[in-house]
């Protein structure tokens, strides 16, 4: 089986599937083998519009794709409310699962998905792309440098974009029956993930939602945020919104240094990404300027971050198929922790914005 690419089936023709299907085709160890929609014509048009290989199988139902014995893995870009049903069925059909985020509507739902994956020996990973960017690994090296960064004390994360009127009226992310988590699930997921990433995925002690979140008429969150507190005194905040200018800021502050970037989710350029570090800065004698100025670092990448994600996932799947390895638990554990904190933010809102203790 050496050199044989992992064969992906795509269930659903969401907009994000265009980007990920391109990544599957660019990944050296993966290929698009099938696409399914509830409409055969929609699936066929999607395959044509996105330049799928001519031998790509077209299915007019999700079940038909899952029954295909030649599919190794499924990419699932369906609305969050459909994840539980189709992720469990995917696992039961012994297909490995790359699923969009948020992974579920709650940890309780995700636990059912994980149970199905574990029972069927299936690898699962969520579609958070930026953590697979080589820049992310370089930034982590700085955060782990006790001489330059010291101990983590504070993380601030922000992801906002100004949605147009059509989005705010018709997009699935504002529909309670499709993506009931709204901005918290869509944009807040990234903020929570970035905070956990900076904290080495150590769960906070408590989570407190900010007051005055913005909801639409259907009760779906359009803007919100929260603070996270650890037992050792670390604190973090995130803000997410469909109602503000496009912003993707991440700042991690240690006792000795600071990491800062303004495009942490999607880099300004596909094949290179930058970040700024500051270590042991101070003021000049007259306090008219800084000494030890921040430094900018640029990482050139051979493959876009979404391709790196697919390559990593396909490598894990190949190791299971070829070598009989057990599914890797790193990625589902990270997904579970992210969902757990997201649940705590919701619970804090429901409890009058009181702190909610994390139990994990």
UniProtKB/TrEMBL annotation:
Gene3D superfamilies given in the database record: Dihydrodipicolinate Reductase, domain 2 (3.30.360.10), NAD(P)-binding Rossmann-like Domain (3.40.50.720)
The Gfo/Idh/MocA-like oxidoreductase N-terminal domain, residue ranges: 6-125
Endpoints of the signal sequence: none
GFO/IDH/MocA-like oxidoreductase domain mapped to chain residues: 145-259
Transmembrane segments: none
Pfam entry (one): GFO_IDH_MocA_C3
Cross-referenced InterPro entries: Gfo/Idh/MocA-like_OxRdtase_N, GFO_IDH_MocA-like_dom, NAD(P)-bd_dom_sf
MF (Gene Ontology): nucleotide binding
Entry-linked PANTHER family: GFO_IDH_MOCA-LIKE OXIDOREDUCTASE N-TERMINAL DOMAIN-CONTAINING PROTEIN, PTHR46368
Family: Belongs to the Gfo/Idh/MocA family.
Entry protein name: Gfo/Idh/MocA-like oxidoreductase N-terminal domain-containing protein
């Amino acid at each position: 089986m050496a050199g044989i690419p992992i064969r992906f089936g795509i269930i659903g023709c969401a907009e994000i599937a265009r980007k990920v299907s391109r990544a599957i085709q660019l990944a050296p160890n993966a290929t698009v083998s099938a696409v399914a929609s509830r409409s055969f014509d929609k699936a066929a048009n999607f395959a044509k519009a996105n330049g799928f290989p001519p031998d790509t199988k077209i299915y007019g139902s999700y079940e038909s794709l899952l029954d295909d014995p030649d599919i190794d893995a499924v990419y699932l870009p369906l609305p969050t409310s459909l994840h539980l049903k189709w992720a469990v069925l995917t696992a039961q059909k012994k297909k490995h699962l790359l699923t969009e985020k948020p992974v579920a509507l709650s940890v309780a739902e995700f636990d059912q998905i994980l149970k199905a994956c574990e029972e069927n020996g299936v690898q699962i990973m969520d579609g958070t792309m930026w953590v697979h960017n080589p820049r992310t690994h370089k930034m982590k090296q700085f955060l782990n440098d006790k001489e330059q960064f010291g101990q983590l004390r504070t993380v601030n994360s922000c992801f906002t974009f100004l949605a147009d009127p059509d989005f705010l009226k018709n997009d699935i992310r504002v529909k309670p029956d499709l993506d009931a988590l709204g901005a918290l699930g869509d944009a807040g997921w990234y903020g929570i993930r970035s905070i956990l990433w900076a904290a080495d995925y150590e769960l906070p002690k408590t989570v407190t939602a900010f007051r005055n979140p913005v909801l639409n008429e259907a009760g779906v969150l359009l803007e919100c945020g929260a603070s996270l507190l650890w037992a050792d005194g670390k604190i973090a905040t995130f803000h997410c919104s469909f109602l503000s200018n496009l912003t993707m800021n991440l700042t991690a502050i240690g006792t000795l240094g600071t990491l800062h970037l303004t495009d942490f989710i999607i880099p300004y350029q596909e094949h290179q990404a930058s970040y700024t570090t500051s270590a042991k800065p101070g003021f000049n004698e007259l306090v008219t300027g800084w000494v030890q100025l921040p430094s900018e670092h640029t990482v050139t990448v051979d493959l876009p971050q979404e391709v790196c994600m697919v390559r990593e996932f396909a490598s894990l799947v190949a190791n299971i198929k070829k070598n009989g390895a057990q599914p890797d638990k790193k990625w589902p554990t990270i997904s579970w922790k992210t969902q757990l904190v997201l649940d705590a933010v919701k619970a804090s809102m429901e409890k009058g914005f009181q702190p909610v203790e994390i139990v994990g």
